[in-house]
Design goal:
With 180 residues, this protein is mainly alpha-helical. Helices cover 63% and strands 3% of the residues. The chain has helices spanning 4-26, 48-72, 76-80, 108-118, 123-139, 143-161, 167-179, and strands at residues 34-36, 42-44. A two-stranded antiparallel sheet has the order 1-2. It is globular and about 55 Å long.
């Protein structure tokens, strides 16, 4: 019962944010103007604002995810070495009021995919962003989150190329997922 007011406050904040977001999404966005190409696919004229949104989502979720791990007692060396060195800073655990920060690392995946598609930056920067996301998800200790991150990048690359993977690639991927 002691956490009921805090839980209600977090729920209320989420509900208000959802309501505001759904109200704003009903408005017509004037900066997104679409045109049809010869295959009747939409082409956006101005993708820079979408890329900026992707960078904001990615950066915010990485920062809040790293903040959660610091509050959990893990150091950055622990994350960079995938848990091999400097295992814990202290024996204290995260207060339950900061546990919601652990959910932000999941929102780095859509931000990363937006960056991969719409950002005009160099390829090496996109690869570094993908590696940062994969490293952080590996250090969470959640196999499901790591698999979701890697699979989302792989599936996105196949969808972007408009090709299907070969059967040998699928079989080897399933074997690796089973072993992982």
């Amino acid at each position: 019962m002691a956490y009921l007011p805090k839980g209600n406050a977090v729920f209320l904040l989420g509900y208000i944010s959802f309501s505001i977001g759904s109200y704003i999404s009903r408005r017509k966005w004037s900066y997104l103007k679409y045109q049809y190409d010869e295959n009747e696919n939409y082409i956006s004229y101005d993708t820079s604002k979408i890329a900026i949104f992707g960078w904001i989502v990615f950066g915010l979720s990485i920062i809040l995810g790293l903040l959660y791990y610091r509050l959990q007692g893990k150091s950055f060396l622990y994350m960079l070495t995938l848990g091999q060195r400097d295992s814990e800073l202290s024996a204290s655990s995260v207060s339950s009021s900061f546990l919601f920060l652990s959910c932000f690392i999941r929102s780095a995946i859509p931000g990363l995919l937006i960056i991969l598609e719409y950002s005009g930056c160099k390829r090496i920067i996109k690869i570094i962003c993908a590696i940062i996301t994969i490293l952080i998800t590996v250090t969470t200790g959640s196999r499901n989150l790591t698999i979701a991150t890697v699979l989302s990048i792989v599936v996105f690359s196949y969808l972007k190329k408009k090709k299907r993977p070969k059967i040998i690639s699928l079989v080897s991927a399933f074997v690796l997922l089973y072993l992982f």
